[in-house]
Write a structure and sequence with these properties.
With 153 residues, this protein is an alpha/beta fold. It is built from three helices and nine strands.
Length: 153
């Protein structure tokens, strides 16, 4: 997708709902503006990496209940791997270990990374805005809360 394509498809009376990475959105928004679409008709959501929580920052007080090491079982992949507290999220941990779970926003907004939690508990780094089914978790914004977590991945 580029500016030429956008300009060929623009309908000035339409509203445009965009989502994606910051560079992608900057390009698309500029193309719409050049095509005469008022900014009031352009809505967007940036997909960026989730921000760290207070407990992830080195200067934060660490609660004694935080799990430093956990056994993560990826049931479908038949893998059991040790998770360390310095890992950003269960999604990033899965990716670092050769798995390719579905995801999109990495902020708990879209729900694409929803996964069945078969055993254990997780804690969210930020409050999810996507609806999460009972017995499932959003792995893009979660970390283990118990020493063993079994995911249906």
């Amino acid at each position: 997708m580029d500016v030429d394509l956008i300009q060929s498809l623009v309908i000035e009376e339409a509203e445009y709902f965009l989502c994606g990475s910051p560079p992608f959105l900057e390009s698309i928004r500029a193309g719409l503006k050049d095509a005469g679409v008022p900014e009031s008709q352009v809505f967007f959501e940036l997909f960026t990496k989730a921000s760290k929580t207070a407990s992830d920052r080195p200067d934060a007080e660490v609660n004694g209940d935080n799990v430093k090491v956990a056994e993560i079982v990826f049931a479908q992949s038949n893998q059991t791997i040790t998770w360390q507290a310095d890992t950003e999220s269960l999604l990033e941990f899965a990716e670092a270990n050769g798995l390719n779970p579905p995801y999109s926003c990495r902020q708990g907004i879209c729900g694409t990374c929803e996964c069945k939690l078969l055993e254990g508990e997780v804690e969210y780094q930020t409050t999810p805005t996507a609806t999460v089914e009972d017995g499932s978790v959003l792995i893009c914004i979660s970390k283990p809360k118990t020493a063993k977590v079994v995911l249906d991945l």
